[in-house]
């Protein structure tokens, strides 16, 4: 498995891991989030303000956020992911209005200023250099374009934070053995969440990359943080 922290991640290993989990990805997400993942996707899509916009969804997986963006009136939606198998699962569902692209968040295959909005949900944590990814996101967005980053975070209330840590370390791998096509990948999931920096650090990456008006919205007691900013 790829390393959980920021150092040592290998794109090929991350791709292979997500190829393995793709067949039961949605089932595992629903089980491990206690059904909250659908709500989180809707929050991301709404924050992107996709109505009549060209939107890029990075680390799109099988296209769950992309379908929300289409439903909310996006003019065009590109779903990009490093995992070909994830994209295949989404493509075979037959969703209209989505262009599927196999690509890397660190080298987006699009010209400068191609999109009005960009979303990434639970994917920035898997990028070897998230600060470079933030700069790449700024490159492909038009001035004033929105970036929306949804990622796991540490709960803000200390007693809940400790309970959540125990859930990640103990319960997540156990549940994954039942619902996932690759349980070992969810050991990485738990470790990568625990290694992820706090909200202020993430916001700082995007400010340095050229985004302004950074805001963060906590969901589910702070288990998830949704950042939004606007390209200068």
Approximate shape? globular
Q: End-to-end distance, in Å?
A: 37 Å
CATH architecture: 3-Layer(aba) Sandwich
Integer count of domains: 1
Secondary-structure element order, N to C: HHHEHEHEEHEHHHEE
Largest sheet report: 7 strands, mixed
CATH class: Alpha Beta
Structural class: alpha/beta
The amount of beta strand, in percent, is: 15-25%
Total E-strand runs: 7
Mean pLDDT: 90
CATH superfamily: Vaccinia Virus protein VP39
- How are strands sequenced across the largest beta sheet? 3-2-1-4-5-7-6
Give the oligomeric state: single chain
Fraction of residues in helix: 40-55%
Q: Can you tell me the residue ranges where pLDDT is under 50 for at least 5 consecutive residues?
A: 1-8
Helices, by number, come to: 9
Gyration radius (Cα, Å) is: 16 Å
Q: How is the CATH topology named?
A: Rossmann fold
Question: What would you say this structure looks like, in words?
Answer:
The protein is an alpha/beta fold. The chain has a single domain, classed as Rossmann fold (3-Layer(aba) Sandwich), CATH 3.40.50. It is built from nine helices and seven strands. It has a seven-stranded mixed β-sheet with strand order 3-2-1-4-5-7-6, with helices on both faces. Helix 2 runs antiparallel to helix 7 and helix 6 crosses helix 9 (199-209). The radius of gyration is 16 Å and the shape is globular.
């Amino acid at each position: 498995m790829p390393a959980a922290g920021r150092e040592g991640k290998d794109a090929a290993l991350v791709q292979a891991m997500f190829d393995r989990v793709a067949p039961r990805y949605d089932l595992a997400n629903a089980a491990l989030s206690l059904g909250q993942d659908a709500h989180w996707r809707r929050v991301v899509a709404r924050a992107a303000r996709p109505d009549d916009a060209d939107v890029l969804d990075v680390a799109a997986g099988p296209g769950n956020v992309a379908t929300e963006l289409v439903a909310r009136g996006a003019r065009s939606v590109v779903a990009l992911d490093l995992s070909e198998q994830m994209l295949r699962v989404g493509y075979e569902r037959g969703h209209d209005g989505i262009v599927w692209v196999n690509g890397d968040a660190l080298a987006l295959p699009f010209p400068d200023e191609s999109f009005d909005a960009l979303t990434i949900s639970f994917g920035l944590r898997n990028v070897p250099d998230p600060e470079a990814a933030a700069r790449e996101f700024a490159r492909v967005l038009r001035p004033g374009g929105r970036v929306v980053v949804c990622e796991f975070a540490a709960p803000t209330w200390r007693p809940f934070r400790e309970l959540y840590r125990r859930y990640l370390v103990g319960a997540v791998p156990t549940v994954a053995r039942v619902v996932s096509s690759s349980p070992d990948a969810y050991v990485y999931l738990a470790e990568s969440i625990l290694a992820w920096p706090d909200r202020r650090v993430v916001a700082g990456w995007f400010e340095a990359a050229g985004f302004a008006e950074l805001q963060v919205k906590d969901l589910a007691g702070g288990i998830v943080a949704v950042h939004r900013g606007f390209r200068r």
